[in-house]
Write a structure and sequence with these properties.
Residues 1-170 form the CFA20 domain. InterPro entries: CFA20/CFAP20DC (IPR040441), CFA20_dom (IPR007714). This is CFA20 domain-containing protein. It comes from Cardiocondyla obscurior. It is a single chain. The chain is mostly beta strands. The protein has one helix at residues 136-144; strands spanning 10-15, 26-28, 32-39, 44-51, 58-61, 75-82, 88-95, 100-106, 113-114, 118-122, 128-135, 148-157, 160-168. A seven-stranded mixed sheet has the order 2-5-12-7-8-10-9. The radius of gyration is 15 Å and the shape is globular.
Length: 176
């Protein structure tokens, strides 16, 4: 999708205040819902994913399973609200060994587990809104001893509120 696009600065793949926030995404909903709501804390629109089972309600990008994102920017930033329920997201990358690897981050894991194709990691979220910065180069090198090439897919599972998901070429300071 973005492989032949100029990538510098940042590249947004979901912004809930836009006219079509899920334009690049598709969704799977079973025993839950996905809807755009007005968040009372920010007085701004957010996308709420909620479900009785974290694995059955999610959004994924790109919507077409035959396509890949092709994003080379190494920092993933997600602005997300802690709903005090189980939550997870997955990012699939391509490394310099031409291997697809998946990082699964959740608030219900207690330890990191590195397997040949999937690494699971715990995350602690503060109350309210959080900004998650995920250094894909560093995690790929530490988990697999390889170099990050590009992001191919992403999934965000219930239960959370999302304001924005984007990729950047550098880590952002708190002021930014």
């Amino acid at each position: 999708m973005f492989r032949n696009t100029y990538q510098r600065g940042f590249l947004s793949i979901l912004y809930t205040c836009g006219s079509a926030p899920l334009e690049l995404w598709d969704m799977h909903v079973k025993n839950g819902y996905i809807r755009r709501i007005l968040d009372e804390d920010t007085k701004s629109l957010a996308l709420e994913l909620a479900g009785t089972n974290v694995t059955t309600t999610y959004i994924y990008c790109p919507a077409d399973p035959k396509k890949v994102l092709g994003i080379r920017l190494p920092f993933l930033i997600i602005i997300i609200k802690n709903m005090k329920k189980y939550f997870t997201f997955e990012i699939t990358i391509l490394d310099d060994n031409n291997m697809r690897r998946r990082f699964r981050v959740s608030n219900f894991q207690s330890t990191t587990s590195i397997r040949p194709f999937c690494t699971t990691m715990p995350i602690g979220l503060s109350n309210g809104w959080n900004q998650i910065q995920f250094n894909l180069c560093d995690f790929t090198r530490r988990a697999y001893g390889t170099n990050y090439i590009e992001t191919t897919r992403m999934q965000v599972h219930a239960n959370c509120r999302i304001r924005r998901i984007y990729f950047a070429d550098r880590q952002e300071s708190d002021i930014e």
